[in-house]
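Troubleshooting log. The previous run stalled partway through. Resubmitting the same two chains, unchanged.
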Amino acid sequence: MIRMSESAGSTQDREAVASPVGPSQQAANAARDSDTVAVERTLAGERDAFRVLVERHSQQLFRLAYRMTGNEHDAEEVVQEAFLRAYRNLGQFGSRANFGTWAYRIAANYAIDRMRQKRNEDARRKTPSAQAEEPEQDPLDLLPDEKPTPDRLATNSELRKKMEEALKGLSSSERTAFVMRHWEGCAIEEIAAVLKSTTSAAKNTVFRSVQKLRRALEPYVGVRGVMQAKAAGATPDSTGTEL
Amino acid sequence: MKHFSEEELIAYYEGELTQREAITAHLTACTACRTELERIEAVLHALDNLPVPERGADYGRAVWQQIAPRLPEKAGRGWRAWFEPRRLVAIGAVAAVVVAAFIAGRWTKPAPDTGTPAASAAQVRERILVVAVGDHLGKSEMVLMELANAAPNSSGQKHINIAAEQKRAEDLLDANRLYRETAEHDGDAALASVLDDLERVLLDVAHSPDELTPAKLEALQKRIEAHGILFKVRVVGKELEEKQNTTNSAPAKTDSETKERNKA
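Second attempt completed without errors. Output:
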């Protein structure tokens, strides 16, 4: 089931969101019931009933699409296309399922196609000489003078660029798995369904994506953890052989 | 002390329940693993701060306004769509033509020679197919012509809506399949080949997005052009039209005549 949180938080936050109790769950159930009614009315020929679904789920789909594509224009196109496809295939949607989850899956699938298409186009356009011209940057140049905090780091435009590049460096499956798991808090089964893979393969893709991001970004942001550990007198095993 | 792997620590961070208690207990005692987890967290926390552009409260309404003109009149009903009256009528009409042609064909087959009854049955059968396929090709030609001539208006239109042409292409596909199969069954390879090409183009149109950018429209037009389908449809259509005019008086084509045409 998809969690509809605004952003990813700590592990504790994840566990709190996962527990199906409280008024937020009641609100989610009410929204789902109202989604079901809107779907039935749309299928009965009331085209305007679909508007309720579009207005309710657009923000969530945009957030997913933006994180997957990394581009506002593409994300908006993904949102629109996802709703158009949902409308055209509404008959295939089981009314007992959750419309939000279903539309989310359509958007994720379309975003994957779009990312692959763009990647192929970019690969065709990019010449080896153009790749060689990209300047190497010293990681130390990106470190701010004062103690870095995540907020400060994200406002550092160079670092932000590095993070965007690291995300671009992921394959479309890895980026999808990372976005769905880390930012959207989706279950592994949900990710496996979108990637059309087994749950163990999906788990592995999530791991691979985090590992790649870590390798790419740790020179710029991993300093803080190491510094803290040193201050505490720890001797971290950076080789990772035993970890 | 046995440490946990990077994969296990990432899974732990992402809320995985397997080994959760064991890892939590280990982290309180093991500085190395705690440091490793902190390093993972540092990267992921930094990524969490990558902003997502804000969309205002009325974003949903804006999306609706964008897509509403592109929505078909009725939502897709999956397999239920096959039972819609409009589609049932179209399928029924095509099926009737095919059945009539098939029965006429069966009636002619047992005849050893091209005797009078068999010849007239073949004429009836051919006339039915000629009229139906001619009509079908005419409709297809119109759709393709409209697409071939579509262009963005002078005010720099960013998207061209082809939903209407798409809908018609989708409707023509069912009929096209049946005519192609009938032509193959009859050994009319020339007609079957044109219908096969036409089917590919109709499928391409039906599966394109409703709204195309000028570049995408141009690409679609080039694909249509590459098949040379408009020319083929016109030639076969014309041929069928001429045949329609002469079928009443002329005898039915013999097998050798059909073979000659296929060769050509």
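Takeaways: Chain B touches chain A through 58 residues (CB under 8 Å). Residues 205 and 220 of chain B are 8 Å apart (CA to CA).
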